């Protein structure tokens, strides 16, 4: 764009200066070489605190309906909005749209069913948020048919 040649030594020197500057205790982040490029990343000492803060902020933004819808999508994916609504018993347009806006779910294609409805599934952001690498890492629902889990059930 600017058609200016910058000597590689100048670039490497600037990166070294930035790396040294951000290693100071004055900063909560540092410059790291990743994937052939450089990124500013949180220092390990601050990661737990920032993770807790981000999770608390994200949870505040999801309504009960959105959490319910997200749970259904996570455990039943791939799933259509019609199937979500049959499980929830109410219209889920708003909740699905908000989850799409927050990039926690994504459209994964179209069903072969009548009208070819969209199919939804969880996104990579969902995986990052919950700290999992695969859907199989989600906690498995308890067996609710067990008498011990029923109201008024007695343990032997």
The CATH architecture of the largest domain would be Orthogonal Bundle
> Would you count the extended β strands for me?
5
Instruction: Determine the structural class based on helices, strands and strand pairing.
Output: alpha+beta
In percent, how helical is the residue content?
40-55%
The overall average pLDDT, rounded, is 84
CATH hierarchy, class of the largest domain = Mainly Alpha
Largest sheet: 3 strands, antiparallel
> Can you tell me the number of structural domains?
2
Order of helices and strands: HEEHHEHHEEH
Q: For this structure, what is the CATH homologous superfamily of the largest domain?
A: Winged helix-like DNA-binding domain superfamily/Winged helix DNA-binding domain
User: Using only CA atoms, what is the Rg?
Assistant: 23 Å
Q: Which band does the percent of strand residues land in?
A: 15-25%
Helical element count? 6
CATH topology of the largest domain: Arc Repressor Mutant, subunit A
Spatial order of the strands forming the largest sheet = 3-5-4
> What sort of overall outline do the alpha carbons produce when their principal axes are compared?
elongated
Uncertain ranges? 144-156
- Compute the separation of the termini in Å: 77 Å
